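Cont'd.
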Amino acid sequence: MDTNSRPVVVKRTPERLNARTAREFLREVQPLFTMDRPQIVFDLSQVKQLDASGVEMLLRCMSEAHKRDGDLKLATLSAQAAVVLELTRTERLFEIYETSTDAVRSFSGFLPNAMRQQLLHRKPSTAPWAA
Amino acid sequence: MTYMDIRALILVNRTIEELADLTPLSALPSALLEVAGKTSLQRTLERLHQFGIPPATVISDCDFLVPAPTNGDGANYLITARERFWRAAESAFNELVQDGAELVLVLPLGGYAEIDVEKLVQFHFGQQARVSQVCTASQPLPVFCISASRRNDAASLFRSQLSKCRSECPMFLHTGYFNPLADARDLRQLAIDILTLKTQTKPSGIEVRPGVWIELGATIEKGARVLAPAFIGAFAKIRTHAVITRCSSVEHHAQIDCGTVCENSTVLPYCVIGAGLDLAHSVVGAGVLANLHRDVTVEIADPKLVGYIPAAAGHRLLNAALELTAYLPKQVWQGLFGKSEPQPDLRTALHQTSPSLGSAAGYETPACDADAAEKFPSDLAVLRRYGHQ
């Protein structure tokens, strides 16, 4: 999806994010973090098992994105993923959205969430700050 | 003055237990799951003893029950095959009658009820009933009071697996405490009710500070905080900088690792919670976590987060020996060549991500109840009111 002229990549994570699968997934998504200001959304709806290595991988991805002035956001967290992120105190480090669409839209500007929601419900001509 | 011979027959049956949704948390039936140091079976036996009822007969179709000599509660335990369970219950009833019982209380354990036996017996005689049943305001409980002379009524009751009574059965309204122990939420609620003294039964162990009960053999390392009300079971270990708060119950042989906050949670026996975690509103079993806020049960296969230690003492000893063998050379190496790092203080420990996250450890993110640890210094006694006191 394209917002604000730069592409936002939505990537669905595998069902299991353990040491092995997390390494494979990291290898798979590594090229995304070589772009300038990467805008990435991980869709965690399929996740049925997430362990410490999986969480570590998510944090590494976020850190890589920040290094290049980009961002990584999470969307559609499965209950399992949400519980593990809460348990490891990492849910407060990520921006988490209910749907991937919401996460993608959140890249469209630097507006606070409340204002962004208002903007979404307005016509484009009435929003002077809309891109 | 003559005393009436009242006996009790306690049934711990899989069919009753299968109604409960606790299977993912523990292989044990809910009647044998320890909450604040004791199982609901032990609490029921204690309660019957308080009412002057001689040691009960416990019939079970699961071999988890420890035989009588080691249990020390004086109850007569009968373990039977599942298909013979109700027949065994009927024979046990007949044996009690032959032994001189005038009234038999039949208590199937699926939940925990604090029944006023005295009032129940008075009601039974007042109604001139053959069989009386206990009910709450919302539902009938499968708890019966049977006159010993009514063997046929008892037989029909056991043959219908306590679902049908041959004669008219007056209902005794139970207004006391009742917990169905049907799921993880009920298990947690029972722990909260015991710790906040809403039940007549109390947590096991010694009340070291108002609202803090600790059983013998529990280890609370320096720097760890236990805030009332809380329960720490026998041989449980609370590592440094861990915080146990808001009615949390850490059962026997469970371990809470360094810097972990355990808030409004129950940690079942032999479970190990990893370092730097934030356990809130949950019940943790062997590799399973039931989160009550999200109403979800999650399997956690990573021992760095939720692990368990073997229940057999021999296995535990072997594990401890292996850990020591691995730990000593590492410590010697670190002592000779490693740089000494100062221990983080409680605030730092509670404001960082778990060390089990490897390279991602140490991110600034406060635990959910980090403030509680700061509000209450470890030397502050937390006072609470107890009813009339």
